[in-house]
Amino acid sequence: MLNSIDSKRNTFFYIYFLLIFISACSYEKADPYYEGNGYPQAVGKIIENKCATSGCHNEKSKVAVAGLSLESWNQLFEGSRSGAIVIPYQPDFSTLIYYTNSYNEFGAIHLSPKMPIGKEALTKEEMKILYEWVKNGAPNSQGDIKFPDTVNRKTVYLTNQGCDVVTLIDSESKLAMRYVDVGASPSIEAPHMVKVAFNNQFWCVSFIAGTYFQKFSTIDNSLMGQVLLGFGSWNTFAISKDSKVAYVIDWSSAGKVAVVNLEDMTAIVYSGFSYPHGSALNASDDTLYVTSQLGNYLYKIPVNNFSELQLISLNGLPPNNTTSLDPHEIIFSPDGSKYFITCQKSNEIRIFKTSNDSLIATLATGQYPQEMGISSTMPYLFVSCMEENSSSNNSERGSVSIINYNDNTLIKQIYAVYQPHGIVVDEEYQRVYIANRNINTSGPAPHHSSVCFGRNGYVTAIDMHTLLPISGFKAEVSVDPYGLGISN
User: Fold this and answer.
1) 271 and 124 share one domain
2) Given this model, what pLDDT does residue 93 score?
3) Number of separate domains in the chain
4) The whole model's pTM is what?
């Protein structure tokens, strides 16, 4: 632009060039960046000129390129058919960086085909702009960060055992929105279970190869506290409804139960359990139920007096550790009147009446039943069955059994999964999320590499209205996705 229009001569040239510019605009589309695509200027110029171009990641061409349009900041955060491509603050988990990066200083993962396809790779300066932008939250031109931190956001939490991270998924969009580093050691501690406290103020995570139990804020995901439990395979845990106590289970031959004060993060550890695993509190929170996984029984423990625990047989035989049941997990019905136990060796669900621990029904499930999710708005219990070889289709292994818990009947099996484990019900959006471990090398090939060793797994979901898998939703996450939790 001219710097001065003080003279007539300068005025003439200003008008002359302005007319040329207006004439050109009548024949050519203006630079899309200046049409409000929402990107910061430096980022927008790179993406609009080299990514959101004809035949590539624009709205017209996105069907052929994994369903991803980069025409605007909002469309970027609609993701692709493999899920989110940018995780705010974390370029090391953002595939936008993987596919555009050619420089080790911006990460070791350089995936092919290199973007932009058929053109020169991004310069180091351009790559630095993208990398720093994602590292700073990938804000829009107004400085807004996608998925702003708030305790009211409905969030699904997923442990990744092979990477020591918890993936946070936005329930509304079904997109991964954050990856939170967990654990207290540089070595892999394998986060196993994650749960949100009933007060919705924090979430907790246990580790099967670590010595700590950790507590994180649901607002900004910062570490609020941790407690040293000692060596053990700390698997499952139950949180009291007042959000003050957690009961954490060590799955080992000389197993333990740690009673954690969630206010001051101190613990009392009780020993004398044989391979304890699944855990749940009854409706009044005065009794803890723990399955003995290599047995035929469960422990029924008054929380105020562990010495008065009872052994409850699950098959009418004396409690023993040579059974064919192997009870894995336990969950109570919404009204607390009965509880359900997955028996991974006998491939069944056993249903008991809470008032007297009597067996109500036994239902066959898919092979190797593991975790359960239960709905309080519909009469459905969902059971992940991890190893059922349902067909010759290498993209499927395992199933989800759906049970009507009012009349104790099996409704159907869903097979569009691969080694499903964690499972959780989202009542607000009427979905059931499933963690597909995908650790078998013959399973579906991951879409991309990981910053950790191993194969990425993925998350799928079931529509509770149709009881069918949600079409087109298969969100790739990190290595060995295992446990699922959800905000209240």
Assistant:
1) no
2) 93
3) 2
4) 0.89
